[in-house]
Amino acid sequence: MVRCPGQDQRFWKPEDIFEVKCPACGGSVEFFKDEPKLKCRKCGQSVDNPKIDLGCAEWCQYAEQCLGVSPGGELNIIADKLKDEMKEVFGGDEKRIEHTLSVLNYAEKIREAEGGNPMVIKAAAILHDIGIAEAQRKYGSSAGKYQQIEGPVIARRILEKYGLEEATIEHICRIIANHHSAKDIDTVEFRIVWDADWLVNIPTDFPTASEEKLQEIIDKTFKTCKGRQIAIKTFLKRPMKEC
Fold first, then answer.
1. The whole model's pTM is what?
2. Most CB contacts within 10 A, which of 14, 32, 108, 232?
3. pLDDT band at residue 209, thresholds of 50, 70 and 90?
4. Do the beta carbons of residue 73 and residue 36 sit within 8 Å?
C-alpha cells in the first residue's frame, strides 16, 4: 500500500519519535509524532501526545481515513489543554472562565470571515486574561492595567509545554500584552481577539449606554469588519451589512 508522502516515515527525522513520561506511574511511553494518545504499557493510563504533529493531516480531507483523526486534530487537542490550564489558573472563578470561553467563541466566528492563524487566535483568546489573578495579587485594584505585564509571562510558561514554535508563542504573547492597549501590534490575529474581547465586555462596561453611544463605541473601537457586523446586530439590533 502506498502511503501519503506527508505521513511516510521514510521522510521523518529522528526527533519525530520520542518518549513521554506517563503522568500516572512515571513509565516511558514511546510516541510517533502523529499519534494523538497511547496507553502506558506499565499501568494502562491513557497518555496524550504533548508534541503531536499531524503534518498534512491538519488540513487534508482524508486525514480520518489515513490516521484515524479528523482535520484540525492537533489544534483541538492543544486548545483543550490550554482551556484546562486556563481553568486551573482561574480556580473557582466561574465568571472569568465564562468570559474567556465567550471571547473564544466570538474569536472563532470572526476568524471564519477574516482568516488568520487558528492556533494563534485560539491560544490568545483562551489565555488573554491569564495574568489577571497575579496582577490582582500584586497590584490590587490596578489589575486591569498590569495584567498585560503579568499575562505574557504566565502564557509563555504554559505554551512552552506544548512544543509550539517560538514565533507562534511570541505572537500569542504579544497579543496578550496588548489586548487592552493595542500599542505594539496590528496583526489580523490581534484584531480578531481584540474585537472578540470587546463583544463580551460591552454589555458589562456599558450597561445603560444609549443607541447613539453604542454606535460611537462600535465605530471607534472595532478593528475587523466581521466584529463590527456582530456588534451592530447584537447591540443595535440592526441587520449586518456587507463589508
1. 0.70
2. 232
3. very high
4. yes
